[in-house]
Design goal:
The chain is 28% helix and 28% strand. It starts with 5 loop residues before the first helix and ends in a 12-residue tail after the last helix. It is elongated, with a radius of gyration of 17 Å. A hairpin with a 6-residue loop joins strand 4 and strand 5. The protein has a five-stranded antiparallel beta sheet. The protein binds coenzyme A (COA). The site of coenzyme A has 15 residues, from strand 2 and strand 5.
Length: 172
């Protein structure tokens, strides 16, 4: 007999849905200085986060917001962009995903952090209405710390939309 998906049993851990994507920066991705375009990096960030959201919810999911993103250093043509995304917090229908971007030099192997972004995706049904998602099961101390920090970010986002923070969703 096959095992039911973990979401049907109890929820999902960040480990079960995390994503690492690698892109080779080509001239078509770059500005006239040979550095990757910011918009291209934002696209990769959105894609990686979307995959995490879909793996967690197994529903349609849309980008609701992306918090401020900085580009701390360039990624040059011929280098790799390594995009790592993982679930940090789950509400009723919303999911916060952290995406880290690093440059990797193919010859030296040196990696540098270039961006960190937090995105909120909302799981939606066929009519595009928000729908509940399985809870997040934090397994490590770092995941628990990240989930607590996410609650503060969520409250800030709600305030910026003129909304009160609803009751906390316990992260397990
Ligand atoms: C995201 C969307 C489905 C939310 O619909 P809504 O009717 O405003 O939803 P609600 O107010 O009932 O909120 C539902 C959840 O989304 C969250 N949410 C809504 N807008 C948000 C925003 N701008 N940022 C972060 N979270 C948001 C709420 O906090 C709530 O979370 P919870 O269920 O975990 O408590 C709707 O705004 C939408 O379809 N937006 C367009 C999405 C899209 O097309 N994205 C692609 C890029 S344009």
């Amino acid at each position: 007999m096959s095992t039911p998906p973990s979401s049907e049993r109890r929820g999902k851990s960040p480990r079960e849905t995390q994503v690492e994507m690698v892109e080779l920066v080509l001239p078509n991705d770059a500005n006239t200085m040979g550095n990757v375009l910011g918009g291209r990096v934002l696209h990769w960030i959105d894609l990686a986060a979307a995959i995490v959201a879909h793996r967690h919810s197994r529903t349609e999911a849309v980008t609701a917001s992306m918090d401020e993103v900085s580009f701390l250093g360039p990624i040059r043509v011929g280098q790799l962009a390594v995009i790592a995304a993982r679930m940090t917090y789950v509400g009723r229908s919303s999911m916060e995903i952290r995406v880290d971007v690093q440059s990797e030099d193919l010859l030296s192997g040196e990696r540098r952090q270039t961006s960190t972004a937090y995105l909120t995706f909302v799981a939606v049904d066929k009519a595009g209405q928000p729908t509940d998602v399985p809870p997040l099961l934090c397994e490590t101390e770092e995941e628990k710390r990240e989930a607590r920090a996410a609650e503060a970010r969520r409250a800030k986002r709600l305030r910026s939309r003129g909304l009160e923070t609803p009751g906390e969703i316990p992260q397990r």
